[in-house]
Amino acid sequence: MIAYVIRRVMYAIPILIGVNLITFTLFFVVNPPDNMARLHLGIRHVTDAGIEKWKSQHGYDKPLIINYEESGLATLTETVFFHKSVKLFVFDFGVSDNGRDISYDISQRMWPSLAIAVPSLMIALMVNISFALLLSFFRGSYIDLWGVVFCVMMMSISALFYYIGGQFLIGKFLHLVPISGYDTGLNATKFLLLPVIIGVIAGIGALTRWYRTFFLEEINKDFVRTARAKGLSESVVLFRHVLQNALIPILTGIVAALPLLFMGSLILESFFGIPGLGSYTIDAINQQDFAIVRAMVFLGSVLYIVGLVLTDISYTFVDPRVRLQ
C-alpha cells in the first residue's frame, strides 16, 4: 500500500513541474514583463523610465531564466524564474502587483469557498445518487423515461439562468434570503443558503444521468443476476451490490472535484458576492494582477494533482486489485 502511494506521488511530481514551466512560459515569455508594465501603467503614461520603475518595484527587473551578470549559484537564483516560479513549490506566493500578501488573502478567502463547496458537494451527492438509484430501480418505466427527460431539460439550461432566476425568485420576489453578500460566523448562513441550493439544482441533470449510467452498467452484470437468483430483493441488490461496485467511477468524480472545495466557483461566487477564492481570481483577472492569477493557477494545479492521487488511493479501498497495478 505504501509503495503504491509513493509511486503515485512520484508520478505527480513531473506533472507539477511541467505545469509550472508552462505557466511561466505563458506569463513571462509570451507576455514579458514589459507588456505587463504597459498594461498597468496605461497607454498615456508609458515611458521607458516608467516601465523600468514598475518592473523594479514588482521584482520583474531581473533576467527571466539566467542572470549572466551574477556568478555562481546567483546566476540561477537572481532571476524572475526563481523568485516567481520556483518559490511557488514551497508555497511562497509573494505579494500581488497591488502590494497585498497573497498567502494571507488565500488563507482568509478559502473559508467562504469551503462554506459553499462542502455542503453543496454533500447535498448534491445525496440528491443525485438517490435520484439515479430511483431511476435505475424503475428502469424502462415511465418514471425512468420522464426522469431522463427531466435531466436532459436541466442539462440544457445554462447555469447562469439558475443563478439569475434563483436570485429573482427566492431573493427578490419572495424575500427569503439576501440576493448577495457575506458575513462572518452564523450570520453567514443566510447568505450561503441561496448559492448552495442553486448550485445543487444546477448540477442535478448532468450528475444524475452520469450516476444512472454507472448503475445501469452494473445492473446487467453477472454478479447482479446471481444476487437476484439467490432471492435478494431489488432494493438490496441496488444498495448492497450495484452501488458498491459503482463506487470507483463515482469516487473519480468526487475526489477530482476536491480542488473546487478550496478554489471555489468563479461564476457562483461572483454572482452572489461571496469573498472566496473564485471571486478573488476573477477580481485579479479584471485588475490584470498577474501575480495573483499565477499563484491561483499553480495552487489549482497542486490541488487537482492531489485530488488525482487521492482518487488512486481511494480505489484501493473500493477495489483491492488496484494495488497490484
In short:
With 325 residues, this protein is mainly α.
Explained architecture:
The chain is 72% helix and 0% strand. It is globular, with a radius of gyration of 25 Å. It has helices at 2-29, 33-41, 48-58, 74-77, 80-84, 102-137, 142-156, 159-173, 189-202, 204-219, 222-229, 234-245, 247-256, 258-263, 266-272, 277-286, 290-318. The model has no long low-confidence stretch (mean pLDDT 82). It folds into 2 domains: 2-90, no CATH class; 104-324, Orthogonal Bundle (MetI-like fold), CATH 1.10.3720. The chain starts with a helix and ends in a 7-residue tail after the last helix. It is mainly α and 325 residues long. It is built from 17 helices and no strands.
Keywords:
17 helices, 2 domains, MetI-like fold, mainly alpha, 325 residues
